[in-house]
Structures are given as structure tokens and as C-alpha cells.
Amino acid sequence: MAKILITLQVYWQSQVIIIHKRGIAMKKNAFLNKAAASIALISLFALAMGLGGCGTSEPATGITLTEEQQNLRENLFQEVDAKLETLQNLNASVLSPRNYEAGRDHYKQAEQHLIRGRDVDRIESELQRAMQAFNRAEETADLAQVTFRSAIEARNDALEAKAPVFSSNNWMQADAQFRTAAVSLEDGNVNRARGQAETAEDMFRAVELEAIKANYLDDARETLSIAAEEQAQGTAPRTFAKAKEEIENVEQMLAEDRYDTEEAGRLAELAAYRASYTRYLHREITRMRSENATFEDLFLEVEKPLIRIAETMDVDVRFDSGIDAPAETIIGEIETTLADKEARLESAQQQIQNLRMENESQAGRIREQQSEIAMLRSQIDEKGDLAGMLEVQRKRDEAIQNVRNLIPPNDGDVFLDGDNILIRLHGLTFPVGQSTIEPKFFDLLRRVQDAIRLFPEGRIAIEGHTDSRGSLELNQRLSEERADAVAQYIRANIGSDITMRSIGFGPERPVASNDTEVGRARNRRIDVVITPGWAD
């Protein structure tokens, strides 16, 4: 619990720093109180979900152990602590909450037995139950990464927009709906879980938009609200109305494209400025009225800043024809100064350009010498010895046979493509227009993982292909999503640092005619391309 509260405190302090760096000056304590309440709600929610603590070599309770207890803990808890770290990387507390919480309960019970000096058998029994629950959590989390892919992306986007801070209540409702979907997946109700996750995805997208709007517009709204309380719309009605209009424009812009934040941020800052300017006008007009100031007083006040600027630049200005002529005189003096600086800068840039050209000439001569050296080395090395070439050929023949032993012909074709080994998974299919991997194909993907493990130093490319029916844009996106889904599933289960990428080609690389159903079925495929380390 303490770790959660400290983390949230640090997070909120960082947000205050960011706010000050953006030049936002809070006019009231209302915003800070609202944000503090949001943090409190998030703290309670995190505690209710059991998100505190992590796998460590120290007890979660913070109690100091004796040296004997510490040694015993390091021996007994090591495997479970490693599993906890894996689950944190998988975000299992969110993707498989009940299994994760059950494991945490047994884990904490084991800690209590250790602290109270209970028998080792009792500690090991609780740790065994914790490991069983954690294993279930890991399996469900791996499945959720594929089944809830879109909902997870929406959740991450909402977090990126700081939805727990800017829209805490709606965030908690969306996350509760996501938890419901995760529990359904734990119960084995995949279809129900998918539908519930779709609802959560819509809720996350809505709360993301709310948070983005709040992030950009809270300062402008707060300032304009204060201006309204001060009755500024009566003393500066046009500026007040303009600020209100600009806020509404930003809201509309974000509703149409929430990710066009550069332009929205610029306009939001302009709206905040306009709201602040409204308050300034209100204060000045109110002051002048209270002092019975005249129009002459107003003109004299306006002239003062121009007089100070002119004196600094040693320029003589007169106001008998208005303020435009003095302004033009000052602008002319500034332009003359800038022109002189630009001329000096251009001269310096030309000198730099001359030096660069000289350096490039010297670099060219160095490259020519390096090329001559490389040619001499290649003549000495030639193309390598014959024994090495034969060894590569032997490894290639052996590797292709090992992969064929893992992938039956009815599930996929295995053949050489240059130095690459290509597994064409015609036994892996997807629902129409979707990228969801169905559980019946998990065994096939496990065998693909075993094939990939044969090449620990290799590079893997997961390629998605479609037939030519439908729009090119839709087919391209679908091929990318399917390839990415397979890559994510393999990466989540393979347990090694294999270099892997996914790419979609849409209908661009057919292997059969798209004029027949049989040909189109062959073109809808996933290709796994393995580049062995020895091929390099």
C-alpha cells in the first residue's frame, strides 16, 4: 500500500511540475482539489484490485527478517518471485485479476508463515498454491493479449492521456468493465469476454477523449469560469465571447480528430490567453471607472510602453498624429538592426560552408584509400575456403529437415527461399475480416515456436497476405493486423530473445490465381520466414 501511495504522490508531483513548465497559473484551488480527489480514488481502486507490491526478496509487510529467515526466504521464494516479475511484465493483475489475486493471497500467507516461524512445509504449501494460481494467470494473460488486443490498445491510449487523473470516475467504470471481460476469459467464456472487451474498448475511447479535452482545456475553462464569476462578460463582452468560442472550437476539433494535438494545443493556449486577457480588461476597466478616468488618461497610458521602447533604442517618437507613426518608426529601426545581423550571419555561414567543402574533399580522398585497402583484402581472402561452404550447405539441409519434422504437410509447407527457411501456414486461418487467433490453432503455433527455437541466432519475419477481394486499404490493414497478432502470440510464449518483426503485404504477393476460391484460399496465408544466423 505504501508503495502505491508513494508512486502516486511522485506521479502527481511530476504533473504539477509539467503544468508550471507550460506556464499555467491556477487561479483557484478548485482544480488542485479535484485532481487530489482523483488521485485518492485511483489509490483506493488500485488497492481494491490488489495491484500493490511486487516480487522481491523482502517481505511485502516491510517487517525486518532475521538472517536465518532471510536466507530461508531467498531459497523458498526465488521461483515465485521470478514468476511475479514475469506477470508484472504481462500486466497480469489487469488481464487475469482473479488468478493473480488468488496467487497474491497465497503468497502473502506464505510470508506470514515465514515471519511467524511456522513449518517449512506450510510455507511451501502456500507457495505451491501461489505458483499454480500465477501459472493460470500467465496463461490467461497470454490469451488476453491476443483476444483483447484492441481493448488493451484503447486502455493504454486512455492511460497515455492521463484519464485516471482527468476523468477518474469514467475511467474506473471503463476499467471495471474490462475486469469483467478478463474474469469471463478466466472462466473460459471467450465469446462473452470478447463482447465485454468491445464494450470496455468503447468506454476507454470515450474517457480518453474526455481526458484529452480536459488536459488541453482545463486551464482555459477554469480561467473563463473565474472571469464569469467576476462579471467580466459585462465589462469585456467581445473578448469573453471570443474566448468561449475558441474553447468550443478546440472541443469540436478534438472530437473530430483527438490525435491532432499540435494544432489543438496551440488553439487551447490561445483560448487560455484570451480568457486571461478578459480578466485583465475587466480589472483595468473597473479600475478606470472607479478612478473616474477620462479618454485622455487612456491615451496617455497607451503611449507609455512605446515611449520606453523608443528611449531604449535611442529613437525620437511623436504622438501628434496618433500611435501608428511612432510604431512604424520603431519597427523600421528594428528591421535595420535585424538586417545588419542577418548580413553578418550570412557571412559566417559562408565561411562554415567553405570549411565543410574542404572537409568533404579530404573525406573523399580517405574513402578512396579505404576502398583500395578493401580490394587488396578481398583478393587475399577471396570467397572463403571450400570446407566452410560445404559446412553451410550441410547445416542448411539439416535445418530444413528438422523444421519439416515439426510442421506436418496438412498444416504447412516448408521450403528454402534463398538462404531463408519459409514456413507457409496454410493450416492457420482467421475469421472473415478479423485478426483473432482461435484456440484451436494454438498447437500449430506451438510447433512453429519449436521450429523457431532451432535457430536461436536467427531473425524471424511474420508476413501476412490476403486475397484480392475488397479494398486495397482494408486488405493491407488486415494483413498487418494478422501478422502482428501471430508475432505477438509467438513472442509472448517463446520465452527467448529471438529477433522478430511482422509485416503485411495485403494482396501484393499472391501464390495462386485470385479468380478461383481455391486460389484465393491459398493467397490468404501467414508466412514465417526464418533467416538462420549462419546464412549471414
Structure notes:
The chain has 536 residues and is mostly helical. It folds into 3 domains: 2-209, no CATH class; 311-366; 393-535, OmpA-like domain (60s Ribosomal Protein L30, Chain: A), CATH 3.30.1330. It is 71% helix and 6% strand. The chain is built from 19 helices and 5 strands. Strands 1-2-5-3-4 form a 5-stranded mixed sheet. Helix 18 links the parallel strand 3 (459-465) and strand 4. It starts with a helix and ends in a 5-residue tail after the last strand.
Provide a compact summary of the structure:
The chain has helices at residues 2-21, 30-48, 67-90, 92-95, 97-115, 120-147, 149-160, 163-166, 168-186, 190-229, 232-235, 237-256, 261-290, 295-312, 324-381, 386-406, 442-453, 472-494, 517-523, and strands spanning 413-417, 420-424, 459-465, 499-504, 525-531. It has 536 residues and is mainly α. It folds into three domains: 2-209, no CATH class; 311-366; 393-535, OmpA-like domain (60s Ribosomal Protein L30, Chain: A), CATH 3.30.1330.60.
